[in-house]
Design brief:
heterodimer; A: 736 residues; alpha/beta; Dimethylsulfoxide Reductase, domain 2; Barwin-like endoglucanases; 6-stranded mixed beta barrel; 23 helices; B: mainly alpha
Chain lengths: 736, 218
Amino acid sequence: MYVKEALMSSKPTRRTFLKGTAATAALAAVGTCSLGAWQAQRAEAADDSAKAQGPSLCNGCSSKCGLIATTLGGRLWTVEGMEAHPYSKGTLCGRGHGAAQWAYSDGRLTQPMKRQNDGSFAPISWDDAFAEIGAKVQEIIAEAGPEALAVIQDPRPSGKYYSKRFMNALGSANVYTHAAACNLSKESGIQEATGATNFSVDFANTKMVVFIGRSYGDGIRPSSVKSLAGAADAGARVVIVDPRLNNTGIFATDWVPIKPGCDIALLLGIANVLVTRDLYDHEFVEQSCTGFPEFAAQVAEYTPEWAEGVCDVPADTIVELAESLAAAAPACAIEPSWRAAFGCAYQNSFETARAVCAVNALLGCWGQKGGALITSSPKAGDLDPVKFPKVPEPAAKRVGDEEYPLALAGTGTNLAVLNGCNDGTVQGVFFYNSNAVQGYAQPAMWRVAVVAAKLVVAIDVQMSETALASHYVLPECTVLERFELPEFIGGKKHFAALRTPIIERVHPDTKSCDEIFTGLAEACGVGQYFPFTVEELAEAQLATVGTSVEAVREAGIVELADPGFAFGTPVFKTPTEKFQFTSAKVAEAGLNPVIGYVPRLVEPAEDEFYLVGGKQGIHSHTMTLNLEALNAISREYGLERLWMAAADAAELGIADGDTVELSSSEHTGTVTVKVTERLKPGVLFMPTHYGSTSPYLTRAQGFGLNMMDFVPLHLEPAVGSTMSQEVAVKVRKVEG
Amino acid sequence: MEKTAYYLRTVGALLTTLGDDAPAAYEEARDAAAAAADSKALAVLATPDSAVRRRLEREVLAGGAAAAVLPVESLYKPWAACAASGDGTEFGAARHRYLGDAAWHARALYDGLGLTVPDAFAAMPDHAALLCELAALYAEAGNAEAVRTLLADHFDWLGAYQEALAQRQEAVEASPAEALGPQRRDELLRALAHGRRLAGLLEEIAQQLATSLDERNR
């Protein structure tokens, strides 16, 4: 870092940091440019040659909305949404603008770190970090086999490729996403019913849409909000089923407050009305479904009155919703949601997803204008096996797949890693772009698990709670500083987009994901599977879909070959090639094969509350709270507050702005309360971004509460999701 | 001027990662103080114990560290004051970001002199150590005007830096017992206190230098 110069013997040795030797004449020259004069010069210069623009994909959440970044003289100046990108459509949300600040943020990791005995971290060189990690990996493989290694990642264009390739190259199939704490149950349920893991609503043509928990106004994608706004403007009926009147309420015609975790009863009650009153689409059911007779026989018991008793929605409301949907059909749909109420929240989340699909089937809206659309996604074709060597299929099955056969092949359940660490099945874990320890399940249980592991490596831009629990923390450079593999975007049209470096690396000792995994691979003895650069791989992938890096860089986003979407009943890629009211795979997993009722697990006692969580429009999980501008918004508006229904507050003598103590079987904490009419009595709402415990995240630490701290560890049977809202809590005012 | 500027330079160096060289660096600073004490005695610093110095380097002066409070000017001043070509910036006058106007101006000064910023300081051309070195180079060349301008432009944030260190001390004191072990907490608090003394000394020397230049000018 510095050079010691031995000067004339009469002077002491001095330390020199700046490189080069300035001529004495230059140093002695008068009239150096002051800061003020320099700033004035820059302001006056209409120097467009210093202005540049480049495309990238936001990293404020998992949507990866396209953005255009502008630099002036090499310094990031502004970011804006990419017009042609289907998720941004010209708008970047608050998260996107906040995330752009990461590049220069003082909260970033700037060099690799190794945990010391006293829990602090000391800098370590990349070479030493790679060497030590490589040695530990080899040790684990020698003792327990490669199947004792795992990687958990929240998918990003390069991360999902490189992390999988690295782990498979080592001989391990243990590649997991964050899905068990996000949308695993929902996607698995939709897959069992339809063969696809997701669907979308045709807002442009819909007459009626029902949201089960999902809130576009609080969630992700500017394009979703725009689509919904268009539907609302066109007079569509928009029904929000949620214990909370969320921020999508401005577009809604109806708010249906519901008991948390009981959406499945509402859906089955609607199904009951559609079947028993013969309001369902006979043609679709007869031609395109399997298992309807068994489903119809079972659904007969799920009367609106029964449903009211379970979910607290009046029977009349259930009947009216069913009849209105039938009248609007097929230009209507139950929206698929994402995380919200049944992505991973309850014991019945998987089944709730199937129930959503069942109602859409009865409405005959699959593939119809205004209905539920299943579209396709592009992907790269086969590549030259010499330049891009094929990695052999790992021998052992992925840890967790046997106990959780309904976990998606593409995601697994990352909680199997938590259990695996505890029973010794998993001994080495890599985390990429993942704060599992804080957000995926009971943090105390995660900490116990990672302590048990012999090697834990976190790759991140900040010292998250997961990084804090790791042996090694490897700093990634931020999105605007790096190139990544193409992102292939599906839908009615197909696209390819890229993350390209907009600014030079701010901290030279940070690396991009591909550099990190390539370095790890070399250190672990499997470097032969990484003989290419990320640019070479990107070029090859894009060539298989008829475009190039240059074309995508120039245009920001390139539309690929027309997938030929057409309205009409889709091809259901299920084993039966039909929509499945019953599923053999579900039966094999030990569950009721027929879509039917499953209760939530935890029922609050008389003096307890339900607790539900949700996103805010400026934050993503635990990732963004330390970003100064977004943190400041949260503090200014008290966004960390726990919501309590006005009726409950009155009963407990709690006023808006009071401090309350929240407690469950797992945790106790205090927080300010927001008293509101926008919440069903008996329910508390907690935004799920707060309560950081990392002292490194100085703006986030101790600000608000972390919902997962209160939730016991449960895994959804056969699916392995985290059951994030299966908890009962007590609340009381804190006096003084 | 030259001797006081050299003292400034040696104290600036103490705000970097010195490792085993730290004791020698403190010795040099004390020698520089003795040589610079012409009309007004300047404060000197005792060498802190090695545990405190290590804590300072690893946990206060390292980017991304637990108690990181870096002596980098951009972090304590508005990021951008100018709006070139009529366009507003994403970040405006926000603080706590690297590579603000201060950094770009410092780099422009180094460029003009044929000096380059080493990789380790790529994000921090406006690190206190580099700015102090530049002041000393100007002083060695006899350019009082340049020293005065540099002090006025780039040494007005040291108060804010001391305040940031003080706030971090408060946060460490308030942190739950289980977050930091007793030894680590004690060493960290002493490291932060030492950092404040270094920053305060730097501010004092800079003010002394500026005052002596003003007196010379009259």
